[in-house]
């Protein structure tokens, strides 16, 4: 008889066989068993008769809701951003390395759909997204580029995922530079080391960048940003401003 699932899991803990369960967010498969990738409560999504044949195990980063919450407590709102990237999630990331075939980025913030359309809108009402402005301001400062990137989720933007048209004419050095802040969408969980991100939409691409002179630039087209001090333009894969 299969053993009962734990209520809480720690990274590397075996949860159940793949014959009985599918691996969800916060888990991975190793030697025909589902293991926890992060610490947190274990959740089971029952199988759906028409779409799923097995229940899905998920390890959450948020605590389980209490069975009988206080009647005076206000209902909790949906978080504006999460810590664990998922497929189709919109992320903000800093470019840490640019190569001929790909760019490596460090994920700073994972947004949900509602937050993605407002994340860089300074007129929005107060919310969790108010923290994003300070996160980006700090990330865009070259003095803050340090070993902290090694503690964040790493991702790759491949040459073929930079834009939707003329993919064969993409030159990575003209699309991104080290230190650029990029808005992208997760298209694959990749391997144990890297997620895969795309910027192949008009609203995706570089949102913040410094010129070679060290000044913050502003977008002038979908492929160009300009230094307001020197007036020099530099090429980028620019995200459409909201």
TrEMBL record:
<protein>
    <submittedName>
        <fullName>Putative Exosomal 3'-5' exoribonuclease complex</fullName>
    </submittedName>
</protein>
<dbReference type="Pfam" id="PF14382">
    <property type="entry name" value="ECR1_N"/>
</dbReference>
<keyword id="KW-0271">Exosome</keyword>
<feature type="domain" description="Exosome complex component CSL4 C-terminal">
    <location>
        <begin position="84"/>
        <end position="189"/>
    </location>
</feature>
<dbReference type="GO" id="GO:0003723">
    <property type="term" value="F:RNA binding"/>
</dbReference>
<dbReference type="InterPro" id="IPR012340">
    <property type="entry name" value="NA-bd_OB-fold"/>
</dbReference>
<dbReference type="InterPro" id="IPR039771">
    <property type="entry name" value="Csl4"/>
</dbReference>
<feature type="compositionally biased region" description="Low complexity">
    <location>
        <begin position="60"/>
        <end position="80"/>
    </location>
</feature>
<dbReference type="GO" id="GO:0005737">
    <property type="term" value="C:cytoplasm"/>
</dbReference>
<dbReference type="GO" id="GO:0000176">
    <property type="term" value="C:nuclear exosome (RNase complex)"/>
</dbReference>
<dbReference type="InterPro" id="IPR019495">
    <property type="entry name" value="EXOSC1_C"/>
</dbReference>
<feature type="domain" description="Exosome complex component N-terminal">
    <location>
        <begin position="8"/>
        <end position="45"/>
    </location>
</feature>
<feature type="compositionally biased region" description="Polar residues">
    <location>
        <begin position="49"/>
        <end position="59"/>
    </location>
</feature>
<feature type="region of interest" description="Disordered">
    <location>
        <begin position="46"/>
        <end position="80"/>
    </location>
</feature>
<dbReference type="InterPro" id="IPR025721">
    <property type="entry name" value="Exosome_cplx_N_dom"/>
</dbReference>
<dbReference type="GO" id="GO:0006396">
    <property type="term" value="P:RNA processing"/>
</dbReference>
<dbReference type="Pfam" id="PF10447">
    <property type="entry name" value="EXOSC1"/>
</dbReference>
<dbReference type="GO" id="GO:0005730">
    <property type="term" value="C:nucleolus"/>
</dbReference>
<keyword id="KW-0963">Cytoplasm</keyword>
């Amino acid at each position: 008889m299969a053993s009962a699932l734990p209520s809480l899991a720690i990274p590397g803990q075996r949860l159940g066989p793949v014959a009985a369960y599918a691996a969800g967010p916060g888990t991975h498969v190793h030697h025909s068993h589902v293991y926890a990738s992060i610490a947190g409560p274990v959740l089971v999504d029952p199988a759906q008769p028409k779409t799923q044949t097995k229940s899905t195990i998920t390890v959450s980063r948020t605590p389980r809701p209490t069975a009988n919450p206080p009647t005076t407590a206000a209902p909790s709102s949906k978080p504006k951003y999460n810590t664990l990237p998922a497929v189709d999630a919109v992320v903000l990331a800093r470019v840490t390395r640019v190569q001929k075939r790909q760019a490596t980025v460090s994920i700073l913030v994972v947004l949900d759909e509602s937050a993605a359309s407002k994340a860089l809108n300074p007129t929005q009402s107060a919310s969790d997204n108010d923290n994003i402005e300070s996160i980006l301001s700090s990330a865009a400062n070259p003095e803050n580029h340090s070993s902290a990137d090694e503690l964040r989720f790493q991702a790759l933007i491949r040459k073929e995922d930079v834009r939707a048209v003329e993919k064969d004419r993409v030159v990575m050095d003209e699309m991104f530079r080290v230190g650029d802040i990029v808005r992208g969408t997760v298209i694959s969980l990749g391997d144990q080391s890297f997620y895969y991100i795309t910027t192949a939409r008009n609203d995706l691409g570089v949102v913040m960048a410094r010129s070679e002179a060290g000044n913050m630039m502003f977008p002038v087209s979908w492929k160009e940003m300009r230094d307001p001090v020197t007036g020099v333009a530099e090429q980028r894969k620019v995200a459409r401003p909201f």
